[in-house]
Design goal:
By secondary structure, this protein is α+β, with helices and mostly antiparallel strands. The protein has a single domain, classed as PH-domain like (Roll). Strands 1-2-3 form a three-stranded antiparallel β-sheet. A three-stranded antiparallel β-sheet has the order 4-5-6, covered by helices on one side. The longest helix is centred in the first third of the chain and has 21 residues. It is elongated, with a radius of gyration of 21 Å.
């Protein structure tokens, strides 16, 4: 071995142990405050952007929608009857459940 080379150390498991509580608290806080969560109420889909901010669209306004799968989430493109296009990110697959309940016939495969 050369003098300037160091043997490799596997310290990632030690750091993962210290990061674990932070990841658990972070995930719990995001779910508790409904950040980026979707729900269907009647014929409406509501996007919760936090404890106080909501965006909703009516199921009658949805002209078509399609899914683009990524590694850990889905990108959903929703075309409205007004000509507007909305692109939402679905991390927990709750948007897909809502869309399949409300506007299943408008899905573009």
């Amino acid at each position: 071995m050369k003098t300037n080379e160091r043997p490799e150390r596997n310290s990632s498991s030690i750091f993962a142990l210290f990061r674990f509580p932070g990841r658990v608290i972070d995930k719990f806080a995001w779910r508790f405050f409904n950040v980026d969560r979707y729900e269907s109420v009647g014929r409406k889909i509501i996007l919760h952007k936090g404890p106080f901010r909501k965006i909703s669209i009516d199921g009658e306004q949805i002209c078509s929608w399609s899914i683009f799968s990524e590694m850990g989430f889905d990108v959903v493109s929703i075309n409205l009857t007004s000509g507007e296009q909305m692109v939402w990110i679905d991390k927990y697959n709750d948007l897909l459940d809502c869309l399949r309940q409300i506007a299943k016939e408008n899905e573009i495969c």
